[in-house]
């Protein structure tokens, strides 16, 4: 997956500054201007709305599971039967083919059909949404925090600190993200992780979160470092230093607020990429471990049965594409509004 | 030029060394538990684990372990304890298939992206531009393996227009070779068509207002010639180096999942199978070789750039 700095701002953007100037609207800060620009971008807002709906749907998973489907994400219904137009149908036929979408014919049970183990796809999809979104959002937050930390230290102190961080970033950069994620996932899923007080069991959901959070750090830390390098030469930093502020204070109260717009531009794209990478890792077997559902995991299950039950592949994939697309389009709008020249480039 | 090459290659050697250390750390130091147990694979008898421990030096200090591991990876004696096969032999056997997939896809995405980028730039702001720009974003948002699985099911299995996966060697039957690879090439390209067409579109919009383009028009060149020889050519310069990097990177990313979906049986399929089985020796070797390949390829691209553009040599 990749997202880059491309779009030339459309005809609608760029007008607010002129309006503000013409109306002598004193004191309209860059934040307000950016928010105004974002608010005018209806497409971006519509896709933000879609993403919010998807999150709400994921949060409502137990409601559907308890009140409509009357099952959970793990329960097998291999021997259950359904009434379909007067005749009885097995949830999983004797040749192993699961039933397709039932919509409301079975009272909401097997709304989107069953998988090879007789589990309710709709319920798994909703719980999978929780896992995929949880991993995507927390990994993106971890990436941002680590990247800001590394970028601040490297850019502010320069010299040896910068050399060490930058060389480590260079080496990480040499690994394509999927293979680095896969290597870490394979190694950690066999033994778990134990560094000091951190103790993660093999197969835990924390493993993909930590891996994905870690793998993308160079992609965000590099541009932030570059920005810090130029910010530290600005007058307001000299002023703070003249007032006697120490390095920590300058980094966190003077420079950090100036990085906010960059971080805001990165965040939606980072979440989108993290969700995609989770799918890649789970598809390959190095991410979320079965039977826990995640979208990538479900697609992986589905592909082995695609000829007899294509809905097992299509449904989770569509959810994934909708989620990532909504974040990508919203992220594009955020970039146009906050920092059209931001260089964002991430890949799966 | 000579000095630049030497400097670049020395830098490369350090990065290669660092990669080998990081790979070693990922598999043998960072995870919890006994590395010998991990390498021997799931459900191995204690005797094999003991042999692995001794052969890899896990009862010795870390630097001995590192040296022994590197020795095994590079002298060709690395074997998978799960399948009892030689890892290097497997990789060497499969590598042509992976390159056939990656090179074809790289050419395909560049050609499509050039067409799409030029088209959308010339119609910037119109409906067709916006529609194609959103379509490019859809392509960027799709996991390669999902798209590949659907293509192979609908066009291969159901409609029977394309073969349903598999690979035919080029020297056996070139037509069948290409026929079998069209869908995988396309599936792998879609993401990059999205990325590159957007990138090219903005580059072209920047270039099209340059003075030399106006001059070219003023001296009476045909519009087609202006667009291809002056605008497109100059917009491509920053994209080409990216192309080299992405070509190297897909071998460690998109190609793995594409191969496993289309059953191509290259290095990517080997990687995917090994990961599913949590078979550590092949995953370790592949991780290292792929990173090596990326670094090596980047160095080649850099040197070619320095040769084309002398300003880079002095940086």
Rg of chain B, Å, rounded: 24 Å
In sequence order, what are the helices and strands of chain A, one letter per element? Answer: HHHHEEHHHEEHHHHHH
* CATH 2nd-level architecture of the domain at 122-308 in chain A: Orthogonal Bundle
What structural category arises from helix and sheet content of chain A? mainly alpha
Name the strands of the widest sheet of chain B in spatial order. 1-2
**Sheet of most strands of chain B:** 2 strands, antiparallel
Q: Identify the biggest protein-protein contact and residues per side.
A: A-B, 63 and 66 residues
What is CATH's topology name of the domain at 122-308 in chain A? MetI-like fold
CATH superfamily of the domain at 122-308 in chain A: MetI-like
- Mean pLDDT figure of chain A: 84
Structural class designation of chain B: mainly alpha
Oligomer description: heterodimer
End-to-end separation of chain A in angstroms reads 4 Å
Shape of chain B: globular
- Uncertain stretches of 5 or more adjacent residues of chain B: none
